[in-house]
Specification:
The chain has 475 residues and is mainly beta. The chain has one domain: Jelly Rolls, CATH 2.60.120.200. The chain is built from 5 helices and 22 strands. Strands 1, 2, 6, 7, 10, 14, 18, 19, 20 and 22 form a 10-stranded antiparallel beta sheet that branches. Strands 3, 9, 11, 12, 13, 15, 16, 17 and 21 form a 9-stranded antiparallel beta sheet that branches. A hairpin with a 2-residue loop joins strand 16 and strand 17. The longest helix is centred in the last third of the chain and has 6 residues. The radius of gyration is 21 Å and the shape is globular. It starts with 17 loop residues before the first helix and ends in a 15-residue tail after the last helix. The N terminus is likely disordered. It comes from Tulasnella calospora MUT 4182. It is a single-pass type II membrane protein.
Length: 475
């Protein structure tokens, strides 16, 4: 069995020019793509006037560091086909999806990336669709990511689940064991927030009913690579603080969008969100004016869902341009994105229809005395990109009577920008390394093991570093 080990692309250093990093034609797995063409970080078809943009958050100038215009027809995304993208071949069981994700469902045509959801029976499932990832091939830390998209289906017909999102490189979407104890943690404090169920010795008492509808607050297994890791442990990927303790490592998630149809208005919307752990009591993250800015309240509003026993989510909903869909409108494309700065003084600023939609800052996820946890942090991990089109009742009611197939999401381009004085591109940056850890546990990336059988880290048999709050450290 030949494993496709995902060694990351070289981390960009400001000592090198971007051009010296471009055109290598070899991706992070060491595979040489068989398709000829343009494989630089910046697509040669990107218009020159798009090489810099003005931040919609603070007005600063941002420089293009990655782009894919998808102008070459007939691209494929099987392993080894592309230096920056790879399509998965699995069932996304985590959210009980009704489709099988197959590389067959993804190609490029007419200047766009196309992901097609069809009534094609595949692996005993009634539907086939696609998910494409840049996991361990292209990652970025901080900056602005922007996509131009025509959404699938019709704005007024609900049930499809198109999404473009990002995750930390230490976990791979669709591979449950890699995510267990890692997603959606965004934590660098040593306290009971790192422990299973967010409790220790029966405290806090409210955690037993601090979730929704009187349920327990958390069913998470505890943060696997926490700041509480014993100092003598060699399995934590690092880095260490000046006092020798470990930095808490995470697999955070920030979504550019998940598209849906409002059950109240019948209008198309996008859900723009970030997920966090550990959790505030009752999932009551701070959505006050000191933490959240909404730029147009006629378009954007708070989502009623704020979390469950497996995630806390800061989510706002924004009405889309109803014409920018596959059917029922003009078929236009609309721009979505987010700009973010990581850390405990960070922020995330979401863009919808090329306009600022909403911003959250680090006050939204400050320490919570009821939960007895410290502050959560905006992602500092290297983030990779994910694009998919799903079908799942977990996301809402599916209107089968009115949905038409095939449903196609079309992506005109995807671009990433950063401050020219603070560029950080790559999946193995010095401050948050991932390469050695991923190489050690490369078996986690084998689809026939992970997607079907390995749902937890314990099933895999991986080492869980001891937590000094509850385990005996040898030194």
């Amino acid at each position: 069995l030949k494993l496709s080990i995902g060694y990351p692309v070289i981390t960009y250093s400001r000592d090198l020019t971007l051009q010296s990093y471009l055109g290598q034609g070899v991706n992070g797995t060491g595979q040489v793509p068989t398709m000829t063409g343009n494989f630089g970080l910046i697509d040669k078809d990107t218009p020159k006037d798009a090489y810099t943009i003005t931040s919609q958050y603070d007005g600063s100038e941002l420089q293009l560091v990655f782009s894919d215009e998808f102008n070459v027809d007939g691209r494929t995304f099987y392993p080894g086909d592309d230096p920056f993208w790879e399509a998965v071949d699995l069932h996304y069981w985590q959210t009980n999806n009704l489709e099988w994700y197959s590389p067959d469902a993804i190609t490029t045509s007419g200047g766009s990336l196309l992901i097609t959801l069809s009534e094609t029976p595949t692996h005993d499932l009634a539907y086939q669709s696609g998910m494409i990832q840049s996991w361990n091939k292209f990652c970025f830390t901080g900056g602005y990511i922007e996509v131009s998209v025509r959404l699938p289906g019709t704005a007024s017909v609900g049930g499809l689940w198109p999404a473009i999102w990002t995750m930390g490189n230490l976990g791979r979407a669709g591979y449950g064991a890699s995510l267990d104890g890692m997603w959606p943690y965004t934590y660098d404090t040593c306290d009971l927030g790192t422990l299973p169920n967010q409790t220790y010795d029966g405290q806090p008492e409210l955690a037993a009913m601090g979730g929704s509808k009187g349920k327990p607050l958390s069913y998470l297994p505890g943060q696997r690579l926490s700041a509480c890791t014993c100092g003598d442990d060699a399995d934590h990927p690092g880095p260490r603080n000046n006092d020798g303790s470990y930095v808490g490592r995470n697999v955070p998630e920030i979504d550019i969008f998940e598209a849906q149809t409002s059950g109240e208005t019948g209008l198309g919307q996008v859900s723009q969100s970030a997920q966090f752990a550990p959790f505030d009591m009752y999932y009551n993250w701070n959505n006050g004016t000191d933490a959240v800015t909404i730029y147009d309240t006629s378009l954007t509003s708070q989502n009623s869902f704020a979390g469950n026993t497996y995630q806390e989510a800061a989510i706002l909903l924004t009405t889309t341009d109803q014409n920018c869909y596959q059917t029922g409108g003009t078929g236009c494309y609309s721009v979505y994105g987010f700009e973010y700065k990581g850390g405990n003084n960070g922020y995330i600023n979401w863009v919808s229809n090329n306009q600022p939609a909403w911003t959250m800052n680090s006050n939204a996820i400050q320490a919570n005395t009821e939960s007895m946890i410290g502050e959560r942090i905006i992602s500092q991990e290297p983030m990779y990109m994910i694009l998919n089109l799903g079908l799942s009742r977990n996301f809402g009611t599916i209107n089968f009577d009115q949905l038409t197939f095939p449903a196609i999401i079309a992506v005109d381009y995807i671009r990433v920008y950063q401050d020219k004085n603070n560029m950080n591109v790559g999946c193995d940056p010095d401050g948050f390394p991932t390469s050695a850890y991923i190489e050690k546990y490369v078996v986690l990336t084998v689809p026939w093991l992970c997607s079907a059988n390995l749902t937890t880290w314990d099933q895999y048999g991986g080492i869980k570093p001891p937590n000094r709050l509850v385990d005996q450290c040898s030194s």
